[in-house]
Amino acid sequence: MEDALYGMIGKIKAQPGKRAELIALLSGGAADMPGCIAYLIAEDLGDADGIWITEVWKSKQFHADSLKLPAVRDAIARGRPLIAGFETHVETRPVNGAAR
Amino acid sequence: MEDALYGMIGKIKAQPGKRAELIALLSGGAADMPGCIAYLIAEDLGDADGIWITEVWKSKQFHADSLKLPAVRDAIARGRPLIAGFETHVETRPVNGAAR
Fold it and tell me: What residues does the ABM domain cover (chains A, B) (predicted)?
């Protein structure tokens, strides 16, 4: 049986004035992750420090494995001081994986 | 100047037991909308009636125009009785539009 798609939707609150820097880090760290179908980053128009991330993975395991990738670990380590907190964090089962 | 990308992230709460039916409607109504770069639908793993939608549009105008499309108007009309409410609704400026 094919694994179900796995997804996450979350809001990260950057430290004041650090949103652009954090987004640059997230974009770089997320490049070329195996099993990652979508990794959409968006600025919250109503919150100058808010970042929304929508992730779609081929399976939950691919996401778990991504956290061991050196590029991802590095991005997490460098991003941590730029993060004020996490507001929304939802696990999902994506119904359609691909953007058009 | 090129228009900025426009996005939305929202959570829809389906009437009890109506999530699958509502997702089918949303998927059909969202097919082939001009200017729509991504329309990701996901079930909330922690809420049996919760649906998350992440949208990326070429501009805010394309989204506004989509609401006039017959297929979209039809999906909205048929979906309304299946919807219990809207929980999260955020406007965004997507930073990266495409899934990989």
Answer: 6-91
Would you say B23 and B44 are in contact if contact means Cβ atoms under 8 Å apart?
no
Which chain A positions have a beta carbon within 8 Å of B11's beta carbon? 90
Residue B32: Cβ-neighbour burial (10 angstroms; 0-12, 13-18, 19+): exposed
- d(CA B63, CA B95) in angstroms, rounded, equals 17
- How many domains are there within chain A? 1
Q: Please check whether residue B97 lies inside any domain of the structure.
A: no
Residue range of the domain that includes A38: 6-92
Distance CA A90, CA A20 (A): 23
Partner residue opposite B23 with nearest CB, options A7, A40, A95:
A95
